[in-house]
Amino acid sequence: MNKIENLHFRIETEYFEQIFLNMKTIKLIFVLTVILSAYQLSYSQKIITREQALDIALENSPDIKQSRLNMEKNKEYLNAQLASLKSRFLFNVTPFEYSRKERYDEFFSEWYTTEDKGSNASLIISQPFKFSDGSLSLRNDFGYQDNYSEGNNSTSYYNGFNNYLFLAYNQPLFTYNKTKLDLERNQLNLENATLAYSIEMLNMEYHVNQAFYAIYQKQMALKIAEEEFENQKISKEIIQSKVEGGLSAKEELYQAELNYATSKSNLDNKKVELENAEDQFKLLIGLSLYEDIQVSTDVDYQAVSVSLDKAIENGLTQRLELSQKQIELNTSKFNLIETSATNEFRGDVELSIGIMGNNEKFVNIYDKATKSPQFDVTFSIPIFDWGERKARIRAAEIAVESKEIDIQNLKDDIVINIRKIYRNLNNLILQIEIAKQNEKNAQLTYEINLERYRNGDLTSMDLELFQNQLSEKKMDLANSLINYKLELINMKIQSLWDFENNTSFVPKELQENIREK
């Protein structure tokens, strides 16, 4: 009997040991699965720095792409204008032509029939001149014709070759140089597009930093909410133990539970706000909305020395918007020049020299060559236009004056904005120091009152006030630091001078365009 009992005991023991081993195995698999999932989640999450975010935005932003395409378009227009100043080669050919017509001869007062067949070709080489707006062309017209004419009393035939070679020069007089003006306008359009692209990049940098710090702000708010939630959890556990020990009334526990639930709701709200900010950030820089990201930044405070005089001087000499306004002024002056040509007195001179020959045989085409010189001078003399030209010129002059006023207004705005940012920076430095001290005081006050709460000298509602005060002061400090960083970036954009690194801040694309010039 003992043997049977021992056997049963041994079987049961082995059975439970096997179950225990299986449970350990399952537990181990579960732990490994959790660890692997956490690792994959952290690995799939993309950590982005401010510099990386800006690079992504400059590559993917629709506004940047449009501005870049506009710059490339104007560059091609300028290339086309430069190419038009080189020699042009044109070849026209008519392989075969045929016509049959009834014509009336007034001299003989009779109708006759003509039938023409032939082919011809023209080779034209022309060279425009930028300095004079004239053009020189060399032209050769070669053809073959087969002609038949039939009248009332006679018929005639002719077939043979003809060639006309001449050199011609055309020169406009007493007017503006259209070729040179068009070239300068295209150059200004490219410069303006390059400036617009650079300005778009500067604006994008500010918006990216603003959105980046907005996410950081939400992350800080979430972190503070998590700390508040943990504090409320500790507070709830303290009051719960007191109520169970009969040291506090149940009303205190009810209030602690309400504070705990409110803190949990606030924590959830901060998570939602962070996710919304991340979606807006991804949309701004051109990332997929389904990509999991986390921003990484450093907002360690270090006061930067900013020179107001240096900022204003650099802003007035380097601001891209001023260059754009100057381009607009020059364009208005070009329009004034073109408008002044309305109904103007002008002339055209055309001079050509050439030689013409024809023969039934191709090899004898110049046996009886004829010289063909030609000289034309044409004047266009306006007599009366009812004041049209004067009115148009005055309108163009007013446009020039308006652009000059715009430049002065922009200069005043630059000075005002830089002064405003400078004052804000100095004020924010003071606010940061105050916010640091307030956070330190709030932390000490909360710790003191938490101890009073443990000792029963403070209610849950009173402790909640000190907790809210601590959270508020922490958030004030974070906001002050973020505002200071953003104002530094704003100063860099407004003055085009980086005071953190004490260097000029001109976009790379604009520097490359300047080097190309």
In short:
The chain has 517 residues and is of the alpha+beta class. The protein has two domains: 49-70 and 183-332 and 396-516, Outer membrane efflux proteins (OEP) (Up-down Bundle); 91-129 and 134-175 and 346-381, no CATH class. Helix content is 62%, strand content 21%.
Please tell me about this protein's structure:
The protein is of the alpha+beta class. It has 2 domains: 49-70 and 183-332 and 396-516, Outer membrane efflux proteins (OEP) (Up-down Bundle); 91-129 and 134-175 and 346-381, no CATH class. It has helices at 2-44, 50-60, 62-83, 178-244, 250-285, 308-318, 320-340, 388-454, 460-495, 508-516; strands spanning 46-49, 88-105, 110-128, 135-150, 155-173, 293-296, 346-359, 370-371, 374-380, 497-498, 503-504. The strands form 3 sheets. Strands 2, 3, 4, 5, 7, 8 and 9 form a 7-stranded antiparallel sheet that branches. The chain has a two-stranded parallel ribbon with strand order 1-6. A hairpin with a 6-residue loop joins strand 3 (110-128) and strand 4. Helix 4 packs antiparallel against helix 9, helix 7 packs antiparallel against helix 8 (388-454) and helix 8 runs antiparallel to helix 9 (460-495). The longest helix is centred in the middle third of the chain and has 67 residues, at 178-244.
